[in-house]
């Protein structure tokens, strides 16, 4: 089987590693990938939909797996299906669960899926009236894709108005949302449109600085599993995943692919913070290494609407990942700094913002790489990840020192 992975980050690096473990994979390609992924896997400079489709047809690709949200939102999965190419990713319409926060909130409200109360702000002129309906802090969210940085927690009215002036208003508007208290966790559902299997829980650390301070980022680290969340699994499946999939079927667009449920565990139970239409980054880097079921079997079951017949098994170990980023991220930052690391590269290093430099790799993005450790428990995995991190360096690096340190109590 020949597999093409679309994307260029640490998530796609982890996906390539996961597919490569399968004896059923005879050819593996990543497009466009990056210079770090290219050390171990065949990366191709395919950038347009036309280039991707032509390569798939010419090379007889058996399966495409789309990693990031942008190409899904642009309709790549739909175009691949029209051309008879099998793809793991929801349709552009179904992906509105991520690409339009307003679409997702309205669907949840209609189906009684637990989430924060919200109001749609159509324009800056109507903001004051809408904001007056909330206590502070209030959460301001962009409607469309924002690379994990379209959420601002405003402590007062002035901060809320400042946030609204920074965000771009879509035709639908911007969301103001009730601030939920509790602890966050992520759960992924592997969906074939009718059936699903849920993964182990993971916990992302979005804020830039230790102790969950600073601006939101695309993710500064994660760990899995999250044992405190297990007692909520069935409730999440019955109250959130199943009605969401049923709603998409009712709309005539069954959800086929990976559904990310970003959740807040509150005193009154789990509530949806957001949906994503793909694996998270860096959650993928700690979940996929623990997967014991052949990933090709899972993908084929998604394509044939038989995911309920597959036993999705994970290791009993824990994995913890720490993102090394460029100083200044998620705002402006400098790149082009050489990366020093052991040779051979340690196991569990997943590359994101890197490029080929003189004699090795150099920084080329905000989130540069993710270092993952594994162990019998989270603390052991954490110690291994940070030990491994000490052997990797580049100028103007930054990372959190407290990944996996939350108490997860109400």
Task: Write up this protein.
This protein is an alpha+beta fold and 410 residues long. It has 4 domains: 92 residues, 3-Layer(aba) Sandwich (Rossmann fold), CATH 3.40.50.20; 62 residues, Dna Ligase, domain 1, CATH 3.30.1490.20; 127 residues, D-amino Acid Aminotransferase, Chain A, domain 1; 81 residues, Phosphoribosylglycinamide synthetase, C-terminal domain (Glycinamide Ribonucleotide Synthetase, Chain A, domain 4, Alpha-Beta Complex), CATH 3.90.600. The chain has 12 helices and 23 strands. Strands 12, 15, 18, 19, 22 and 23 form a 6-stranded antiparallel β-sheet that branches. Strands 3-2-1-4-5 form a 5-stranded parallel β-sheet, sandwiched between helices. The model has no long low-confidence stretch (mean pLDDT 95).
């Amino acid at each position: 089987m020949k597999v093409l992975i679309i994307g260029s980050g640490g998530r796609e690096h982890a996906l390539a590693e996961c597919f490569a473990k399968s004896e059923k994979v005879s050819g593996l390609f990543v497009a466009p990938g990056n210079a770090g992924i290219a050390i171990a896997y065949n990366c191709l400079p395919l950038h347009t939909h036309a280039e991707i489709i032509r390569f798939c047809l010419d090379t007889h690709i058996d399966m495409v797996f789309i990693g990031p949200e942008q190409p899904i939102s642009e309709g790549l999965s739909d175009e691949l299906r029209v051309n008879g190419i099998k793809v793991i990713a929801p349709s552009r319409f179904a992906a509105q669960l991520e690409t339009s926060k307003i679409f997702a909130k309205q669907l949840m409200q209609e189906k009684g899926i637990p989430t924060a109360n919200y109001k749609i702000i159509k324009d800056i002129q109507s903001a004051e009236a809408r904001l007056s309906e909330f206590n502070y802090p209030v959460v301001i969210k962009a409607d469309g894709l924002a690379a994990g940085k379209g959420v601002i927690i405003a402590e007062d009215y002035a901060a809320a108005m400042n946030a609204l002036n920074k965000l771009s208003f879509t035709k639908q508007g911007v969301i103001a949302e009730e601030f939920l208290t509790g602890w966050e966790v992520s759960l992924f559902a592997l969906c074939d449109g009718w059936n699903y299997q849920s993964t182990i829980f993971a916990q992302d650390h979005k804020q830039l600085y230790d102790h969950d301070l600073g601006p939101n980022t695309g993710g500064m680290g994660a760990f899995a599993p999250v044992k405190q969340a297990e007692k909520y699994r069935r409730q999440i499946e019955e109250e959130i995943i199943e009605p969401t999939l049923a709603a998409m079927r009712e709309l005539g667009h069954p959800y086929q692919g990976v559904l990310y449920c970003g959740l807040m565990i509150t005193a009154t139970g789990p509530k949806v913070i957001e949906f994503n239409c793909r694996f998270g980054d860096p959650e993928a880097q700690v979940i996929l290494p623990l997967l014991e079921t052949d990933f090709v079997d899972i993908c084929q079951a998604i394509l044939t609407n038989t995911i309920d017949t597959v036993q999705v098994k994970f290791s009993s170990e824990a994995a913890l990942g720490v993102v090394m980023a460029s100083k200044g991220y998620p705002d402006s930052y400098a790149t082009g700094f050489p990366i020093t690391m052991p040779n051979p590269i340690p196991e569990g290093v997943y590359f994101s913002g890197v490029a080929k430099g003189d004699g090795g790799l150099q920084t080329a993005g905000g989130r540069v790489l993710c270092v993952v450790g594994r162990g019998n428990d989270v603390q052991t995995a954490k110690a291994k990840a940070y030990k491994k991190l000490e052997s990797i360096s580049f100028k103007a690096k930054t990372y959190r020192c407290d990944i996996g340190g939350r108490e997860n109590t109400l």
